[in-house]
């Protein structure tokens, strides 16, 4: 799977905005919607609502990408996002507001770093997890 | 909660700026490679690149290194999958990908970086290590 690298950056921007709203409102249902988006994204980032928005509304106005990137890191990052979004949902919907806020905070920082700086969190975390798992 | 959001975004901005400033910048390093990790090559500087399938910048490092190794005598590019060399990854203190080690002609680590180095500075560094 090869992706236009600007698509995931665009999605990360929308994800950032969504987690700002989640933190401000404490709305667990909104976080649940984002968890669903991450779940789809872990399967194919192009099929999320953000991905479709990018493909049909944004990409046609930008022209073709200079290069394409492998989809595996993006899918991995979406799976990591799913874990944090799920933590947020469970926290807010069960009344453990602090847990929800912590989950949303991690997700917000990760999405913001991806959107603004292009930081590949999947690359940063992948080896760490691998090393700890086999330690 | 507004203050929390503002603080988180400020924190992320600082992290991002530091990350961007250090990303791909080569710096002097030392140490030996784990025995048997590399096939011996006399009088060759090795660009030893640890990567994984789930790492997008690893592809850029591959392109930069292959390009340099193809254009300079006495330089080779070796790419190792971190998953398959977890012992070496541990010995070398590698936590993030892509990590690039510049190994001198005696087989000692001379320089290292995390991220994608730019072509010009990698070429300058390798030329220096070749001459050392």
UniProtKB/TrEMBL annotation, chain A:
Keywords: Membrane, Transmembrane, Transmembrane helix. The keyword Transmembrane applies. The chain crosses the membrane at residues 76-99, 106-129. It comes from the Bacteria. Residues 4-131 form the DUF4395 domain. This is Membrane protein.
UniProtKB/TrEMBL annotation, chain B:
InterPro entries: Thioredoxin-like_sf, Thioredoxin_domain. It comes from the Bacteria. Gene3D superfamilies: Glutaredoxin (3.40.30.10). Residues 27-131 form the Thioredoxin domain. This is Thioredoxin domain-containing protein.
